[in-house]
Amino acid sequence: MPKTESTASATDTLAELASLKAQVEQLGERIEVQGAVQFEIAKLLQTFHGQLQALPSQVNEIVKKAVEENAQDKIPLTREVLTRLDHRLTQLAVNGHTVKQVSQMTLRRLGPATQKIRCVFIVQSIPMWDALADVYSAMTHDDRYHPMVVSIDNSQLGRAEFTGEDEVHEGLNALNIPHIRLNMQSYDALDVLRNLMPDVVFRQQQWDSPVPHGLRTLEITFARICVVPYGMGVLANPNATDPSEEAYPDNYDQQYHRLAWKVFCETEMTQSYYRSFAHSDPDKFVLSGYPKLNKLMEAKGKGEWPIPEPNGRTFRVIWAPHHSLAVNGYGFGVFHKIYEQMLAWARSAKDIQFVLKPHPALAFGAEESGLFRNGAYQHYLDAWSALPNCTICEGTYGELFDASDLMITDGVSFLHEYHLFEKPLIFIDSGVHAPFNALGRLAERAGHRVETFNQLRQVALDYKDGKPWKLVKEREELLQVLLPRTEPAASIILDSIAADIKISRS
Known about the structure:
The chain is 48% helix and 11% strand. It has helices spanning 5-71, 79-110, 130-140, 165-174, 186-195, 249-252, 255-259, 268-276, 291-297, 335-348, 362-368, 376-386, 398-403, 414-417, 438-445, 453-464, 472-482, 489-505, and strands at 117-123, 145-151, 180-181, 200-203, 224-227, 262-265, 285-287, 315-320, 352-356, 390-392, 406-409, 425-428, 448-450. The protein has a 7-stranded parallel β-sheet with strand order 3-2-1-4-5-6-7, with helices on both faces. The longest helix has 67 residues, at 5-71. The chain is globular, with a radius of gyration of 28 Å.
């Protein structure tokens, strides 16, 4: 009996259903196997963790017994014996590190049983959030991704106490960003992070010391680390004797960079710096452009000035001091040299409004310098804020930049970021700061450089009175380097991650 069209269609449908059933069964088996493997790895790590916790007391008992027996002349407690003990403990630590890394790499290869790419953003600072904001936002509108945010404590410059999660939490709430609070012991926080089962993790800084121990580089390699710098790397290697040596390891070759799965580079120049160390696969350094600059440019035309102007538009100045006060003959910051003069100028200049935009670490830097004791820095902030034409702004700043007329800074990041808004920038040079690399020198040339407060004040007044900006060409050269791609950086980053994760899952 010949097949009719409907019979053939039914046969095809049954074949497709059978094929689909087989695929589902294979997927189920794969998930079951992954679950079993992950369970065994978790048990291994739990056992290993228990053994490590018990190790200090065991070592104490061994040493105590050895000392007691030595006191009874039973055995000699020599340097050789202690050296051998130290060697064994060191070997044990190395073995433990190896087991942990192998286990984490295995977990990373298995990944969660979901098609969406799970990304976790570890947030320690709201002022740094602009570097990742567009990446996170793009993921929330992309069906390929499941983004999550966690808030953590941090240590200013890696030397202060671990605090600040509450401020990050409040800042994320203000930005309407859902997040998980990791305001807990750092290894408990690590357990929560692992349970989120991220494919990818973003942290805000390459530095480990400001981050709680449980969230440092070696602890988070169970996920693919992706790097988007929190600020442009514009400093040169201080030991360089030739331009070819100016790539600074602190900016481009830390452990975090070496163990990262992908590093998204702001410019061709920074991409070449990363690759110059030859410690990683060069293909992982992706020229994406800098999402922070895209985020800042979104603020154009949306300026918000924080000081009321009841008598009409005033001249608006941002003063952005750096934290590295040059009190010992080295540093960018000149706050300690000009802060009294700035306050006096602000008191007398009724037709100028001033916004103090301090580096997030300036409070710590001022106190640590020894020049601002017994709350002197806070007293200064109070005196500044009491003036009707002055205020202090922290947090994100794109809208502030757009609303302003001029910036005064001795710092690093704003030296290139403010040029996006095509307004006068005065750079007050300490004369004793770390050397700039080629990118930093471009930014420095695009700003109006001064060396003293009197020069700073006069130049600002000149621009207030309508002096034209004469560094247009230098600014354009800088912006051509800063904006290497026409496509938004966040789009490039998302496509790069998705493409390579798809390959690894296939």
